Amino acid sequence: MKFSKRHAAKTLTWRLVGTLDTMLLSWLLSGDLWIGLQIGGFELATKSFLYYMHERFWYRTKIKSANKRHIFKTFSWRCIGTLDTILLGWLVTGSPLTGLKIGTAEVFTKMLLYFVHEKLWYRINFGLDKRIKERRLQS
User: Are 17 and 117 in contact (CB under 8 A)?
Assistant: First the structure.
């Protein structure tokens, strides 16, 4: 599999936003800042890998409509991300209920944040040399 600067940059920017959101939600729902920091820390590793693989998968799809693509990507990523958060919350706190609460809260905050992130990155040509060349040829 070929390394993609664009997918790596998207992974890093999303991880910053996503991890801060998870840390805040974990802290608020557990009542313990240390738990929020732990879950966020573990998430950096697990979700960075999962997100990069998700980007590589979606890069190969043939969905032409940008809005459909963003919506499908938002939902597919949220399923993966929520399962990861629930498991991490459970492992860190020892409580499946706390993991479920954190994961459920994340569904709402992360769907909105992810959709905005996708819309912003769609406007950025970083790492899309092929797309830029095609646009120039069409002009």
Answer: yes
Rounded Cα gap, residues 22 and 28, in angstroms: 10
And the tokens for 126? 């970083």
Helices (H), 31-128: 33-59, 66-93, 96-122
Dihedral sign from CA coordinates of 122, 126, 129, 132: positive
Instruction: Name the region of 9 (left: φ>0; alpha: ψ -120 to 50; beta: rest).
Output: alpha
Give tens-digit pLDDT for 39-51: 999 998 898 899 8
Tokens of 107: 């569904």
Which residues are CB-neighbours of 32 under 8 A, at least 6 positions away? none
pLDDT of residue 137: 62
